[in-house]
């Protein structure tokens, strides 16, 4: 199925072999692993990607410090904020919020035994000494979603007891480092997207009820109007939204929307 935007993209004199992509850090494992490999095999395109918090990446593009072919955000608003810099966009999938834990944590056995009962989860999160990891709500949508999810799970007062201030430096890690810190045992638990926990093969529980934010967390792909490699950008979008990349993301926990 062809992308509707493609007729608006000027034809290039020769086939492009590189595509530059700034993308939400929650997709780093599939993007840098199976998607990069499959794109090279299927289209002969070298994926040159850079992960990060979606709003941090949007600011780089808006300020002219980055000029990618494609931007993939975990918050559609970050794409909308780029206005007419965007040639074409598509919200192609979504995920949910989960609580994952480190197998190296001394509390790993306790977390394995926890059910999806909100009271039990809140009680464990409020236990003395539990090291919680999350991302910065100022630059990463997941950081904002984490605060919302914990409020829905536990109430406003308990959310403050669990997370502290919104910018609690003791809990906040860069989006691109969060998984590695959890895997290394530098935190006991982390608030992640289901995509991340699956890709990293971490044990997790999906947050129960509304706290999972089901249907709210979505991925949007945008081709930039001044893309240096417009043909490769179009091919990459086709690959990810409709082609083999779609299946790879589904296996990584992304729930695809439409066709």
Question: Care to describe what's here?
Answer:
The protein starts with 17 loop residues before the first strand and ends with a strand. The protein is an alpha/beta fold and 259 residues long. It has helices spanning 28-43, 54-62, 76-80, 108-113, 118-125, 141-154, 156-163, 178-183, 194-200, 230-241, 244-251; strands at residues 18-24, 46-52, 70-73, 86-95, 97-101, 132-133, 189-193, 204-206, 217-224, 255-256. The radius of gyration is 19 Å and the shape is globular. It has two domains: 4-95 and 218-256, D-Maltodextrin-Binding Protein, domain 2; 102-212, no CATH class. The chain has a six-stranded mixed sheet. The chain has a four-stranded mixed sheet with strand order 6-7-5-8.
Short key terms for the protein model shown above:
D-Maltodextrin-Binding Protein, domain 2; globular; 6-stranded mixed sheet; disordered N terminus; 10 strands; 4-stranded mixed sheet; alpha/beta; 11 helices; about 260 residues
Short description:
By secondary structure, the chain is of the alpha/beta class.
Count of individual helical segments: 11
Low-pLDDT parts are 1-16
List the secondary-structure elements in sequence, H or E: EHEHEHEEHHEHHHEHEEHHE
At the fold tier of CATH, the topology name of the largest domain is: D-Maltodextrin-Binding Protein, domain 2
Round the Cα radius of gyration to an integer and report it: 19 Å
């Amino acid at each position: 199925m062809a992308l509707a935007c493609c007729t608006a993209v000027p034809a290039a004199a020769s086939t492009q072999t590189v595509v530059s992509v700034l993308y939400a850090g929650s997709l780093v494992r599939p993007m840098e692993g199976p998607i990069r490999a499959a794109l090279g095999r299927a289209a002969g395109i070298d994926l040159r990607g850079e992960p990060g918090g979606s709003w941090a990446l949007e600011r780089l593009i808006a300020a002219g410090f980055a000029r990618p072919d494609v931007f993939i955000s975990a918050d559609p608003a970050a794409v909308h904020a780029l206005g007419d810099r965007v040639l074409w966009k598509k919200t192609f999938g979504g995920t949910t919020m989960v609580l994952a834990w480190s197998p190296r944590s001394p509390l790993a056995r306790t977390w394995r035994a926890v059910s999806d009962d909100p009271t039990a989860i809140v009680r464990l999160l409020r236990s003395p000494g539990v090291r919680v990891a999350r991302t910065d709500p100022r630059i990463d949508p997941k950081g904002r979603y984490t605060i919302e999810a914990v409020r829905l799970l536990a109430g406003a007062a308990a959310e403050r007891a669990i997370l502290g201030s919104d910018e609690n430096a003791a809990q906040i890690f860069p989006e691109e480092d969060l998984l590695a810190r959890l895997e290394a045992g530098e935190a006991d638990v982390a608030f992640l997207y289901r995509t991340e926990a699956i890709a990293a093969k971490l044990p997790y529980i999906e947050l129960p009820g509304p706290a999972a934010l089901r249907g709210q967390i979505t991925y949007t792909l945008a081709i930039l109007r001044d893309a240096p490699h417009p043909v490769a950008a179009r091919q990459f979008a086709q690959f990810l939204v409709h082609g083999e990349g779609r299946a790879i993301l589904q296996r990584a926990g992304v729930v695809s929307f439409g066709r």
